[in-house]
C-alpha cells in the first residue's frame, strides 16, 4: 500500500500510526540535514509527544542545502512526509509510521526558500544533522574562515551556499523585522556540539556583519546535546522489508531498539516537552556525550577499518569475528574506558558492555562502509582526543596506534582478498596518497597536520604506529590483531 495521509487508516494491522490530526499541525522546527538518523531519533521523540496530544505546534519542516537533497525531498513529499520506522530487535521486529514532519522546504541555489522559512516567526528551533565534519572546524578546533564555501557566504550573505549562511541570513531578517531569535540545536556527534555550532554561526556572521554576530551570540541559544541510536543506511533491502510489512515507503528507516537523547535545557524561544517522551535534560551533558562519543563512536572506528580490510560487511559481523571482537574488547577496556567518567546510573565499563551488546545485534545491517565513512573527521573527533589523554596519563597507546594504522591500511583502497574499497572520504585522494607513501615511510601518514596536528611528532605514538603499520603489511591484519591480543 502506497504510504500517504489517505492510506494511513488502511495500513496493515499491527502497524502503529499517527493518532493525531496531521492537518492541524503547525510548524515550530526547521531541521536541516534530513537523513535517516533524524527521522529515527529527534523526529520520533516529537512524534511520541504528538501521540500524547502535545507539541502540535512544533511540527518539523525538513530542509537541505545541496542539490542532492532534492531526491530525498521528492521521495518524502510524494508520501506526505510520512516515514516508516522499523525497529530491528533480535526478539522480533516492529514498525510504526511517524508524522511529525509536515513539509520539506524547496531546495534552491542561494537557499532563498530556506531563509524565508526560518524567518517565519512560528519557527522557534532550527536543528541540524550535517555530519561531524560539516561545521567548518580546523584541526586545532578553530572556525575555518579559509574554506571556499565560507568565503563565498561571507562575500554573498544574501545568497549563501551553506546551512550556516542561510541561518545567518534568516537571523538578520528576523532581527530587522523584530521577530526575535530562535534556538540553534546541533544533533550531530560532536562533543560540545552546541558550542561548536555557536562558533560556526557567529564566526560566519562576524565576517560580514559584526553587529549581527554580537546579536546572535547574545540572543540565540545553542544547547549542547548527546544523541544516540544506531540507524543503518536505507537501500533496496530496507525498502523490501517495508514492503514485506505491507507498506510501499520510498524511504523507510530501520533502527535498533535503543535511543538516548541528553540535552542542555537552553532554549531561548521555548521547546517541546521532550522529557515526556524519554529525553533527559541536564546541565551535565558533557559527561554523557564524552561517554558516548568515546565508547560508541570511537568504538565504531576500532571495528570498521579492520572489518573493511578483512571483508566483513557489517558491524555485527565484526563482533562475530573472534579476532576483531577481541581486539574491540581489549581496546575499549585498556585504551578507552580509563578516560571515560561515570554518569548517573552507568559506569564506564557497564556502558562499554552495553555498546558491545548493541553492536552485536545481528538484525542491524549497519555496514562497515557507512561507519568508516569520513574517517578524516571521525578519527580526529572520536579517537585522537582519547590518544592525547592516554599520552598525557602515560597509559597504554598500542591499541589506539593500531586503530590508526588500520585506518591507513584501509585507505590504500584494497582489501586483503584483493577487492577494491571504493572512495569513502571527502579527501579520499589525499588519504590514499598518504597511505601509499606510508608503506615505506609511516611518517607520511602522520604528517597530515589537518588530521593529527602535532600528534605525529610524538615519539611514542609515531613508533607504535610505524610498528603496527609495518606488521599489517608484512604479516596481514589477522596476524597483527592476534599479536596485539597476545601482548
TrEMBL record:
Pfam families: Mannitol_dh, Mannitol_dh_C
Domain Mannitol dehydrogenase N-terminal residues, every copy: 28-275
Record Gene3D superfamilies: N-(1-d-carboxylethyl)-l-norvaline Dehydrogenase, domain 2 (1.10.1040.10), NAD(P)-binding Rossmann-like Domain (3.40.50.720)
Domain of life: Bacteria
One function term, GO molecular function aspect: oxidoreductase activity, acting on the CH-OH group of donors, NAD or NADP as acceptor
Membrane-crossing residue ranges in chain numbering: none
Coiled coil spans: none
Keywords in alphabetical order: Oxidoreductase
Name listed for the protein in its UniProt record: Mannitol dehydrogenase family protein
InterPro entries membership: 6-PGluconate_DH-like_C_sf, 6PGD_dom2, Mannitol_DH, Mannitol_DH/Oxidoreductase, Mannitol_DH_C, Mannitol_DH_N, NAD(P)-bd_dom_sf
Organism encoding this protein: Sagittula salina
Amino acid at each position: 500500500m502506497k504510504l500517504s495521509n489517505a492510506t494511513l487508516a488502511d495500513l496493515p494491522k499491527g502497524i502503529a500510526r499517527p493518532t493525531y490530526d496531521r492537518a492541524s499541525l503547525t510548524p515550530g522546527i526547521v531541521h536541516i540535514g534530513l537523513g535517516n538518523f533524524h527521522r529515527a531519533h529527534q523526529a520520533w521523540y516529537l512524534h511520541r509527544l504528538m501521540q500524547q496530544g502535545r507539541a502540535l505546534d512544533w511540527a518539523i519542516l525538513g530542509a537541505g542545502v545541496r542539490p542532492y537533497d532534492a531526491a530525498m525531498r521528492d521521495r518524502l513529499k510524494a508520501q506526505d512526509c510520512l516515514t516508516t520506522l522499523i525497529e530491528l530487535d533480535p526478539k522480533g521486529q516492529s514498525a510504526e509510521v511517524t508524522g511529525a514532519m509536515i513539509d520539506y522546504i524547496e531546495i534552491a541555489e542561494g537557499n532563498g526558500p530556506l531563509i524565508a522559512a526560518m524567518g517565519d516567526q512560528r519557527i522557534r528551533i532550527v536543528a541540524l544533522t550535517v555530519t561531524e565534519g560539516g561545521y567548518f572546524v580546523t584541526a586545532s578546533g578553530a572556525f575555518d574562515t579559509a574554506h571556499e564555501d565560507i568565503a563565498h557566504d561571507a562575500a554573498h550573505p544574501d545568497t549563501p551556499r551553506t546551512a550556516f549562511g542561510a541561518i545567518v541570513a534568516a537571523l538578520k531578517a528576523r532581527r530587522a523585522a523584530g521577530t526575535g531569535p530562535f534556538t540553534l540545536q546541533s544533533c550531530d556527534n560532536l562533543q560540545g556540539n552546541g558550542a561548536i555550532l555557536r562558533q560556526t554561526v557567529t564566526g560566519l556572521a562576524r565576517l560580514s556583519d559584526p553587529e549581527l554576530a554580537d546579536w546572535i551570540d547574545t540572543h540565540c541559544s545553542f544547547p549542547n546535546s548527546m544523541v544516540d541510536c544506531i540507524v543503518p543506511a536505507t537501500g533496496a533491502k530496507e525498502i523490501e522489508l517495508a514492503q514485506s510489512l505491507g507498506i510501499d515507503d520510498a524511504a523507510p528507516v530501520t533502527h535498533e531498539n535503543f535511543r538516548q537523547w541528553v540535552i542542555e535545557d537552553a532554549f531561548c524561544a521555548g521547546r517541546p516537552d521532550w522529557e515526556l517522551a524519554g529525553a533527559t535534560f541536564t546541565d551535565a551533558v558533557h559527561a554523557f556525550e564524552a561517554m558516548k562519543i568515546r565508547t560508541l563512536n570511537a568504538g565504531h572506528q576500532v571495528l570498521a577499518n579492520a572489518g573493511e580490510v578483512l571483508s566483513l560487511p557489517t558491524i555485527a559481523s565484526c563482533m562475530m569475528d573472534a579476532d576483531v571482537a577481541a581486539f574491540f574488547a581489549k581496546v575499549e577496556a585498556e585504551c578507552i574506558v580509563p578516560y571515560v567518567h561515570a554518569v548517573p546510573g552507568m559506569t564506564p565499563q557497564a556502558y562499554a558492555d552495553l555498546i558491545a551488546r548493541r553492536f552485536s545485534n545481528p538484525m542491524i545491517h549497519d555496514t562497515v562502509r557507512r561507519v568508516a565513512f569520513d574517517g578524516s573527521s571521525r578519527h580526529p573527533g572520536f579517537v585522537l582526543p582519547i590518544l592525547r589523554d592516554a599520552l598525557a596519563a602515560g597509559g597504554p597507546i598500542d591499541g589506539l596506534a593500531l586503530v590508526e594504522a588500520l585506518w591507513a591500511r584501509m585507505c590504500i583502497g584494497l582489501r586483503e582478498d584483493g577487492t577494491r574499497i571504493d572512495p569513502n572520504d571527502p579527501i579520499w585522494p589525499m588519504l590514499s596518497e598518504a597511505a601509499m607513501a606510508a608503506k615505506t615511510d609511516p611518517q607520511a601518514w602522520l604528517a597530515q597536520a589537518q588530521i593529527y596536528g602535532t600528534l605525529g611528532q610524538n615519539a611514542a605514538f609515531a613508533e607504535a604506529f610505524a610498528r603496527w603499520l609495518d606488521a599489517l603489511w608484512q604479516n596481514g591484519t589477522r596476524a597483527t590483531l592476534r599479536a596485539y591480543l597476545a601482548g
